[in-house]
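Saturday, quiet lab. Running sequence design on the structure tokens for the scaffold JK sent over.
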């Protein structure tokens, strides 16, 4: 146990999110979607790249490269400054919503054949694969010398990052769609079994569970000792992790939440299938503002420089003021944006369902 904790602490230092890095889904192990560093107030389109088919996967940014998966089955590495292709790796099947994670020179991503791939970040060379028994839409999470990934075969897996060997698996009663969040050595996720789980990373034993109140596809964000997530039970839920109880629920009649929440400055921001972006008080769950788009919002927001960046199925990338919800800027991509923005080095990167990767900055 002590060796694992030391390795985990070392990995946290390695994976610490700086202003030039967005190394995994939601940007950090807490899955808060909050980016350090400054983003220009006035964005312009810097480059695009055509991946050839829909992009549902959210990008990772590390060491001057953008990594993103497409439904062609390709994991591509692009130069962040220019958008030029560095390399392309072909997975076994299409890449859906699984988003790449980058750690210690390796890129990890899952595909719809249920295969997790480890790829050399420098040249796209295959390192190892691990097969589950159903599609992977969850995104991989490095923690210490281990890697966590959920599968539609109902299991959360823990693998060795070095060689992909199974360390343990935790079985649930339904699909594991969400990406697990790691806090205090516990992996938290709310599953399609309508249960909020806490599982020890060291040994795969369950540390807590409580009813989530609905089928859950969204990933959990953790901040200030609370876990935040939306459900198909038409709620956003806050869980007090120390007390192991629900702190509050925010209900929206008739409309589920697929988007994963972002948390910053005591605020929780999440997209809804009611076509709205919702901002809630993280302490009380009280609604602070909403912003209306023209279609459902499955994209998960990112927060940087006091602004919210989020896509909508109306084809637009929106920039909103975090304090008020006021629209500051928008870009019409012409195709639904269900992937989530990645923010690093003063740039915003997002993929669209027509297969294009967009990079904005100054």
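Result came back. Writing it out in full:
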């Amino acid at each position: 146990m002590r060796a694992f904790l030391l390795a985990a602490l070392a990995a946290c230092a390695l994976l610490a999110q700086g202003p030039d890095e967005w190394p995994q889904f939601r940007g950090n192990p807490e899955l808060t979607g909050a980016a350090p560093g400054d983003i220009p107030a006035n964005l312009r389109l810097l480059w695009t790249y055509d991946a050839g088919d829909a992009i549902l996967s959210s990008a990772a940014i590390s060491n001057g490269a953008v990594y993103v998966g497409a439904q062609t089955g390709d994991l591509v590495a692009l130069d962040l400054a220019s958008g030029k292709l560095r390399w392309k790796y072909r997975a076994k099947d299409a890449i859906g919503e699984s988003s790449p994670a980058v750690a210690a020179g390796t890129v990890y991503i899952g595909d719809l054949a249920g295969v997790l791939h480890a790829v050399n970040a420098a040249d796209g060379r295959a390192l190892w694969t691990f097969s589950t028994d159903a599609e992977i839409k969850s995104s991989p999470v490095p923690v210490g010398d281990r890697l966590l990934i959920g599968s539609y075969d109902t299991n959360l897996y823990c693998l060795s990052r070095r060689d992909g060997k199974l360390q343990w698996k935790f079985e649930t009663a339904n699909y594991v769609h969400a990406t697990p969040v790691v806090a205090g050595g516990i992996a938290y996720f709310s599953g399609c079994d309508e249960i909020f789980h806490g599982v020890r990373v060291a040994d795969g034993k369950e540390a807590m569970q409580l009813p989530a109140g609905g089928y859950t596809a969204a990933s959990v964000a953790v901040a200030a000792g609370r876990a935040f997530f939306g459900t198909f039970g038409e709620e956003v839920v806050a869980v007090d992790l120390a007390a192991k109880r629900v702190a509050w629920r925010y209900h929206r009649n008739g409309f589920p939440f697929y988007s994963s929440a972002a948390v910053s400055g005591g605020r929780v921001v999440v997209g809804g299938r009611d076509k709205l972006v919702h901002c809630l008080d993280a302490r009380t769950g009280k609604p602070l503002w909403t912003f209306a788009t023209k279609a459902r919002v499955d994209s998960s927001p990112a927060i940087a420089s006091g602004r919210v960046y989020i896509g909508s199925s109306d084809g637009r990338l929106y920039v909103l003021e975090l304090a008020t919800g006021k629209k500051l800027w928008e870009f019409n991509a012409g195709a639904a944006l269900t992937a989530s923005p990645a923010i690093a080095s003063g740039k915003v990167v997002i993929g669209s369902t027509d297969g294009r990767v967009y990079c904005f900055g100054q």
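Notes for JK: The chain has one domain: 2-361. The first helix runs from residue 2 to 14. Ask whether to fix the surface positions before the next round.
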